[in-house]
Specification:
By secondary structure, the chain is an alpha+beta fold. A hairpin with a 2-residue loop joins strand 5 and strand 6. Helix 4 crosses helix 5 and helix 5 crosses helix 6. The longest helix has 18 residues. It is elongated, with a radius of gyration of 27 Å. The protein starts with a helix and ends in a 12-residue tail after the last helix.
Length: 322
């Protein structure tokens, strides 16, 4: 039918969604949108395909299959990790008035009345791309790639245990539990900073809750992060021959999204425990969020340390106050 139209045919008889074949077997929706994707105007407008589907289902009392070409509810949905990653990169690239070129999506779903929210959904087949996309679009949180991979393993365990699709709210709950609500054994109570006049040298004093005890931590450095790391090491770890290193620091503004309208800093750090001068255990990312960037990054450092502790590293934290 497509070739016939391209050769000059001015009439095609068909059906809708495979039902009504006595008038012709070709699905007119599929035919029209196939032509549309090749840059040929089919002379039919499907900018609200949902209404077409609802009318057809009401008339025939037959549901349109969820994977039916162009019209199915899952047609614009990706569960596979590699597909999700490609779509995420394609959507990021699509800014301004660029021609639509997104992998696995031949047309812009908005052209036929669909929306982006359901494009990427996460189940046990998904990878870091789908999880990262939902965090960014729904909650405005952009993680470094290695942190995406680390958090994706957390989500993977949840989907493996349940055997079900996981929704954006579930991912956010797991993100909060994994990073933001990690407050044991170290929690930031408050802090103050001062800078030498005409210098970038920072003095930082923080009050840290360790179990049921509140401990003063003082540090100095060329910024609040180095001062805080140095103070924590001197107070808790260095006296026992241990310390930790910070090997990554990223700070982004939390963008406007469905679940966050106010500006907020999202800071991500990666820490490595060191015992007797050698690396001990694996590196862990920590995340902190706050309207104040310094508060966010201090929380991120403690988040990373608490995750190292949560991973079973008891030797590093053996001498902490109870």
């Amino acid at each position: 039918a497509e070739l016939a139209l391209m050769a000059g045919a001015d009439r095609v008889e068909g059906c809708l969604f495979g039902n009504g074949e006595r008038t012709g077997n070709v699905c007119l929706v599929t035919l029209a949108l196939n032509m549309f994707t090749q840059g040929i105007d089919p002379g039919v407008v499907y900018d609200n395909i949902k209404e077409t589907i609802e009318i057809a289902e009401w008339c025939t009392e037959i549901k349109v299959p969820e994977r039916y070409p162009w019209a199915g509810s899952l047609v614009y949905t990706a569960f596979s990790g590699s597909h999700q990653d490609a779509i995420k990169k394609g959507l990021t690239f699509m800014t301004g008035d660029k021609q639509w070129e997104v992998p696995y999506l031949p047309i812009d779903p908005q052209d036929i009345g669909r929306h982006y929210e359901a494009i990427i959904r996460v189940n046990s087949q998904s990878g870091k791309g789908g999880v990262a996309y939902l965090l960014e679009t729904e909650y405005g949180v952009e993680l470094p790639k290695e942190a995406q991979a680390e958090f994706a393993t957390v989500v993977q365990r949840i989907t493996d245990q349940t055997g079900k699709e996981i929704h954006a709210k579930d991912i956010w709950d797991a993100f909060e539990k994994t990073f933001l609500n990690m407050r044991q054994p170290l929690e930031l109570v408050n802090y103050s900073m001062s800078m030498d006049h005409g210098s970038e040298h920072v003095k930082l004093s923080a009050l840290i809750r360790v179990g049921s005890t509140e401990v003063d931590v003082d540090g100095e450095g060329n910024g609040p992060v180095s001062a805080f790391v140095g103070g924590l090491n001197r107070k808790f770890f260095a006296p026992h021959g241990n310390f930790f290193e910070l090997s990554h620091y990223q700070s982004n503004a939390r963008g406007n999204c469905k679940h966050a309208q106010q500006s907020e800093a999202v800071c991500t750090v990666r820490c490595q425990a060191m015992l007797a001068g050698s690396k001990h255990g694996g590196q862990k990312f920590g995340v902190g969020m706050h309207s104040n960037t310094t508060t966010a990054v201090l929380r991120a450092v403690l988040s990373a340390l608490n995750r190292i502790h949560d991973a079973g590293d008891t030797q590093m934290f053996a001498h902490l106050p109870k």
